[in-house]
Structures are given as structure tokens and as C-alpha cells.
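[job 4471] stage=fold_predict status=RUNNING
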Amino acid sequence: MEAEKFVLYTVEDYLEAEKLREVRHEYLDGTVHAMSGGTLRHNDIAVSIASIFRRLFRGGPCRVNLADVKVRARTAFGEAFYYPDVVVACDPNDQREFFLENPTIIFEVLSPSTESVDQREKWFAYQTIPSLAHYVLVAQHAVLVEWFRREGDGWTRLLLTLAEDALDFPERGVTMTLSEVYEGIAFD
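[job 4471] inference complete, writing C-alpha cells
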């Protein structure tokens, strides 16, 4: 039996290979991990969030992107590239073609297979991005949002569970209720 080969990728090799791959991969300090597909519910929630921002951002300096845009994070342990479900970027100098380095708001719609990564690994990495002001975790099987807001040198955690609860991003002129986030989603 032959041992499995373990390959570490440079950032440059990862970025070049990712351009050609049919399946998206995230990068964590030399290792590459294939991403699983999402559900219709997962996609509907992400589209609802992105649509609210898109409608309000027309003609402004900010842009909103869905799952095909990577975000680069640099931690004490190395570099990472993740594909957030929704990312808002407002820095006019952040103009790379395949990834962002200065996002303002990141949303992750939680899935059973990725929930622990979103809550731990990605959260740890995203905190190192100086421009990031909000990290929002959205459950897909219940009205439940965990919202982290940067305040000074720390972060405040809010838990939202009611349809009338709202996410407010005053620095971007955006407020959305959970009923808007979960529009069209039926819960058992």
C-alpha cells in the first residue's frame, strides 16, 4: 500500500490552480480543501442578504459579492483564503480580480458540514482583518443569527432570534430585519 502524498501549496500556486478548478477550494496555510455544495435554502438566504445590500448600494462606493469571491486573511499561523457566502467591500483600493483583502461585512450561512469551521476557524481568521466591522452567522433551519460587531479593540456578540429583530449597519446605511433575511423560507 502506497502512502498518500501530502502537498503544501504556495499562495501563488493555489491562486493559479483555483482559476482552473471546477470545484472551489479554500486555502489554509498551504493546505487546500474542497468546498461542498449548498442547499436551495442556503442559497435563498444568501441571495436575500445580497439583494438587500445590492439594492441599497447602487451608485455607491461599496459592492456586494456572493460565494464566488475569496477573502484573504493573514493570521499568526499563516494565510487563508475563504469563500464567504456574502461579502461587502467598500475600499476602492481593494481591486484584485480574484480575492478581497479589505472586506467590511461578512456573512456565513451555516450548514451542518461547515458550521464548526465558520464558528471557529473562519471567525479566528476573520478577526485579523482590520477593515472587517461585522461577522454574521446565519442559521438556515431556524430564525437564528449570531452577529459579531467590532467595537474599538474588541468584538460584541449579539444573538437575534425574532423575525422583527434587525441587523443595523449604520456606517453603510443598511438595516435589514430577520424577516427580510429569511424571506420565503418555511420552517417546520
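[job 4471] summary: DSSP finds four helices and 13 strands in the chain.
[job 4471] exit 0
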